Amino acid sequence: DDRLIAFRAMLQPEIDEEHLGKDAGLDRSEWPLVIYQEISNVDPDFRGNGLQQYLGRLLMKQVDTERFKYVCATVAPFNIASLKDKFSHGLEIVALNEKYGGMLRYTLMKELTKNESGSASESRSIFMGDIEEQQAVLKEGWIGTGIEEIEGEWMVQYENRK
């Protein structure tokens, strides 16, 4: 009925000190190769129909892999729908720090030219609210690969691929 019920956008970001490539540990020379999954919005009357993931699949297919090597995004801890969405597109948590004037955010990244994630030598689950423990394992090189609810608590799965 001529009504916008969902939209999603990607963004080629400015190269500045807030760039997600920095949070992801990329060399500054690779920052121009990063595109962001920037925003998703679904009308409340249409939530629960998989529109966010559907639009994400459409956009990910259109990314010019000759021009971009990485997709990055940020998501707030406990934004379960957005975290599930990012993991469904192959993004993984690579950092957890303050962004956007002090708001805590996961930085997620996917290397577009990589076919496999690699096998984990170790894995563990950490309570999503335990920010310090998550930051510690991320600094050690662990990668967040998924989330699950256990007895009413959201846990983040981390893998050490060293």
Note the gap between the termini.
52 Å
The ordered H/E elements are: EHEHEHEEEHEE
Give the percentage of residues in beta strands. Answer: 35-45%
Radius of gyration: 16 Å
The quaternary state of the protein chains shown equals single chain
Write down how many β-strands occur, each being a DSSP E stretch of 2 or more residues. Answer: 8
Strand order of the largest sheet: 1-2-3-5-4
Chain-averaged pLDDT: 94
Which stretches are poorly predicted, pLDDT < 50 over at least 5 residues?
A: none
Can I get a quick summary?
The chain is of the alpha+beta class.
Question: What tags apply to this protein structure?
Answer:
alpha+beta; three-stranded antiparallel β-sheet; 162 residues; five-stranded mixed β-sheet; 21% helix; globular
Give a verbal description of the structure:
The chain is of the alpha+beta class and 162 residues long. It is 21% helix and 37% strand. The strands form 2 sheets. Strands 1-2-3-5-4 form a 5-stranded mixed sheet. Strands 6-8-7 form a 3-stranded antiparallel sheet. It is globular and about 50 Å long. The chain starts with 5 loop residues before the first strand and ends with a strand. The model has no long low-confidence stretch (mean pLDDT 94).
